[in-house]
Amino acid sequence: MTTGLLHTHNILRWIILVFLLVSLFQAMGKSPGIRKSSLWLLIASHITLIIGLYQYFTGSFGYKLIESNGAGEVMKNATLRFWAVEHITGMLIAIVLITIGRGRAKKLNYKAASWLFLFALIIMLASIPWPFRDGIGRPWFPGM
Q1: What is the DSSP letter of 82?
Q2: Which among 43, 23, 42 is positioned nearest to 33, based on CA atoms?
């Protein structure tokens, strides 16, 4: 089950990035289609959040790293710190921004939605364990 959730979490990452880019460009282009795309973005990001929180508290990465190594040791090690603190914090902030952006998009407040989606995209891109990142990199599509 853990492997399946990890793969689902990873695939949803790509779906979120696509919907985030679509919603961002629709907000910048003042398209009323933003209501639908931002709704799908909100749904995908919240499902990913639920799966990620489950993995954080039950998996070997996340909270278990803090329990087994201690908070001080985790904060000294860049790899452990990424998985225990940085990834979850960055993604939580990005999902909060997406949620607020969805509210603005629903009211067709394009300028606010575009800024919120842009900030969420930047934070999300910085918080993803891309394959080229030393020590924390994950494959583009694990298991495939």
Answers
A1: I
A2: 23
């509210």: which residue's tokens?
103
Print pLDDT tens along the chain (144 aa). 677 888 888 899 999 999 999 999 999 999 999 999 999 999 999 999 999 999 999 987 888 888 888 889 889 988 888 988 999 999 999 999 999 999 999 999 999 999 999 999 999 999 998 888 888 888 787 765
Q: What is the model's pTM?
A: 0.91
The pairs formed by 100-105 with CB atoms below 8 angstroms and a separation of 24 or more are: 101/23, 101/27, 101/38, 102/38, 102/39, 102/41, 102/42, 105/23, 105/27, 105/34, 105/35, 105/38
